[in-house]
Amino acid sequence: xxxxxxxxxxxxxxxxxxxxxxxxxxxxxxxxxxxxxxxxxxxxxxxxxxxxxxxxxxxxxxxxxxxxxxxxxxxxxxxxxxxxxxxxxxxxxxxxxxxxxxxxxxxxxxxxxxxxxxxxxxxxxxxxxxxxxxxxxxxxxxxxxxxxxxxxxxxxxxxxxxxxxxxxxxxxxxxxxxxxxxxxxxxxxxxxxxxxxxxxxxxxxxxxxxxxxxxxxxxxxxxxxxxxxxxxxxxxxxxxxxxxxxxxxxxxxxxxxxxxxxxxxxxxxxxxxxxxxxxxxxxxxxxxxxxxxxxxxxxxxxxxxxxxxxxxxxxxxxxxxxxxxxxxxxxxxxxxxxxxxxxxxxxxxxxxxxxxxxxxxxxxxxxxxxxxxxxxxxxxxxxxxxxxxxxxxxxxxxxxxxxxxxxxxxxxxxxxxxxxxxxxxxxxxxxxxxxxxxxxxxxxxxxxxxxxxxxxxxxxxxxxxxxxxxxxxxxxxxxxxxxxxxxxxxxxxxxxxxxxxxxxxxxxxxxxxxxxxxxxxxxxxxxxxxxxxxxxxxxxxxxxxxxxxxxxxxxxxxxxxxxxxxxxxxxxxxxxxxxxxxxxxxxxxxxxxxxxxxxxxxxxxxxxxxxxxxxxxxxxxxxxxxxxxxxxxxxxxxxxxxxxxxxxxxxxxxxxxxxxxxxxxxxxxxxxxxxxxxxxxxxxxxxxxxxxxxxxxxxxxxxxxxxxxxxxxxxxxxxxxxxxxxxxxxxxxxxxxxxxxxxxx
Length: 745
Known about the structure:
Largest sheet: 10 strands, antiparallel
Radius of gyration: 26 Å
Structural class: alpha+beta
Number of strands: 32
């Protein structure tokens, strides 16, 4: 419900100027689960349809539906060729403007073909767009994500589009969204629309299989909009700074107070900020607001607080209590938040020889790791410590074991031992786990883990319950057990926390290490599973799975031996798996193939970027094999006229994009077994592209222009992988940033 103190916006958001000829659509669209060709018509009466927030996911069901929104176009734009950005849609669409089909992606009939990961960009001929218009999208909604779930929703002239393409090519910027979070809530600011698009009550996407996390507010913006001069993360922290001509606005979720409140702090002269006000739309729950001015040493800060109540958050006085505390203390919470994150930096290992850009990206990666972990103040106790795979607006805002393990390893390498321990404890305490001990597939074969186990076979819901569900049946990923042991080893190397290890040794042995051993085939390889890329069962015997499990068991055996527990069984199993890999996965003694099942180099998954991990994690140390392996993979997996790598040699638009995670793991392998200069080139590429995009790392780079694609920002597979690559390159024995010798500054 729109609040009375706010002005209503309907139809369009013009976010730059009319001269710039860019229009952004309203975020409230009409929606119906039905199909009729008349829905495309401009004059169709959709007033009885549901209102839906766009972009947002529409997961959990499958079928045909329609979205509609009305928009106005300034007269000076009419009569020109237009370009429509219609968002990213899961799965297929037919898009109409004023009843005219302007574009389609994927196929709806006779058989659905998905284009779930593609931003829709459609050319609109001259004469279609008028002053008053209707955009209608017919789509097939897929279960996994569904809806117009992300991406750009805008209309511009062809001239503006071509100009923008040149500007973006020159600057390298393709991402315009920034997220602030304290692990409890998250809010997404969009530079293009100059508004906080969404405020979420949790950082994860699902409470459980039947309940999704919905925004409590959206469209938080200045009541009298003005053009921002610049946008950035302030000093590489979680604070989003938006500068205007006469004042600045700072958005943040506070770490120092552990509140579920989004703060918007306006700084400027008392005269400039006294009349500033905000507007917003209310989502699920009830929004609380408060605003007040704090004057300190002649500097005025005007605070706007956005709290909320819902079924889990019932304190209706949270904003009032926050105001009373700040007024009483007469301190700057903005300054305290920046100082807090800088103190985190000071406790981390930041290589002295790293470049200024590398240090900036490393600091922002530390911030993202912090923002992506649920703290103990969350009102869901079993959620504490979990680390989501991507922060919003990224679609992977759930906790995968795989991504979380790389995030935990990065935390440990940095010296963030408290955070790393919490991440491990989340998985060790998660309940209930073990749903897929038995899982008979439709071919009659049991692909379950086979024994009692503790670590999820895929990922977790926000309440820590195991989630292995997919549209084509459960995905069973045995590599998770090996990757958890890898993360555990990194934590133990950094902390030497014997008490922690002793507390959990029985679980580590019986429900993690034994789960790996139970799933080793007679030839030393892990049996068929869904693999690192979550393919439907019956799957394959993936090299990545066997490789990370062998390395995980090897490291676990060393820990067991160090602390006086049974170790030889796990060492022998690791050796057996290594022998199996070298005997069955090495093709013509020169290249490690992606799985045991594909025998021909032309097979779809013969070449798999997952094989890079066996060199990066230290399992395979043969320099000659690494050299010939890379020579082979460079022919098919290396991006044309570039230095990065795709995930799988495939015609699938998701698999054949460049993956920064793959680039960074190759960098680690090159640093140890190949050429250090090549490692540095890959690190430099990620650093440069991230610098142009608020020091965030995406899931993918688009082929051809390296624009950001997929989920942004990625956490374990983004920030975590960068931390590991950079510390590996420079050596991670640097003292914490705030320590000189044995003394803290």
